[in-house]
Amino acid sequence: MSSIIDSFLDLVSPDPSYMPSSNPFDFITATRIGRIALTLTKYFMKIFGAALIGTALFLMTAVGYVYFFVMLDLLSMKSILLKALLFGMGLFFGFNVFFNYIQCIRTDPGSVPAAWLQSMDEQDVDCLARDNITIKGKKWSKYCNKCQKPKPPRAHHCHICDRCVMRMDHHCPWLSSCVGYNNHRYFVLFLIYLCICCCLLSTFLGSAAMGYWSVDSDLWYEYHSWLSFIMVLCGSLGVTLCGFTAWHIYLVLTNQTTIEFQFNKLRQFTESRRDSTVPINEYNVGIWNNLQQIFGRTTAFWFFMPTLQNPPLNGFEWPTVESMSKGKV
Fold first, then answer.
1. Which positions fall inside the Palmitoyltransferase DHHC domain (predicted)?
2. Structurally, how many domains does the chain consist of?
3. Could you give the CA distance from residue 128 to residue 119 in angstroms, rounded to a whole number?
4. Taking the complete model, does pTM exceed 0.70, yes or no?
């Protein structure tokens, strides 16, 4: 009996080197059972992520096929111009959905550069590892206990990817990867175009079902099951995506990530209770500057075009309200 208890305590007890932390996740990963659970979760998320990517690509391909080869033929109209317009819209929006989704997957979200780590002052690194504090005036914020390395401002450790990600927003299972600084532009554009496609398709099929469009009745009944499935899928997905897309557009306009938003709300609550002041987001340097940090330093038209481009900043130096007021970018 005592051996069972000892084995159990060995599983749930933290390592001798564990230092108390305000983050409960640190305690979990300091135990054997916590590390086992985390390892199993990582493998599960990799398999699950691959399955979700396959599902997403299949659904997008199926919907695209039905749109071009069924829905356009469904319209019993004589106007070639309208069909050409619908074909062009479908081609443009559909291509942007595929393009940005593929780019989200294949673009690395942004790891901490090795050259940047090698440029660190050894004394400052020792100070960070010992005290885990922010060093004023330096190009990094705190020390990552998981990577055992300094991490730049706005970088966070992803426990699924097992690395620090530059300007990490969240880990997305549909990408089997993180949304970070390098692929954030593609992620936001993917959401925008997918939302537009879902709304247009559900509206088109819904109005056709209610008789607002003159459709080929034989073709409608032949593909009725597929068309009904796509209408329900796009309608329900569109409602959800509208809110989710609006949320991420708000984050881009205010220069926040999902993680930073939660942190800023918590800091606002605690500091406003203490001294009745509401702290500002130091990275919110104006709507236009915020947009350019994600979409690039170009005109608004090219923000939404399917182009390959690197982010304009290096990912570890960020303009702040203070630096912009002093004329430093």
1. 141-262
2. 1
3. 15
4. yes
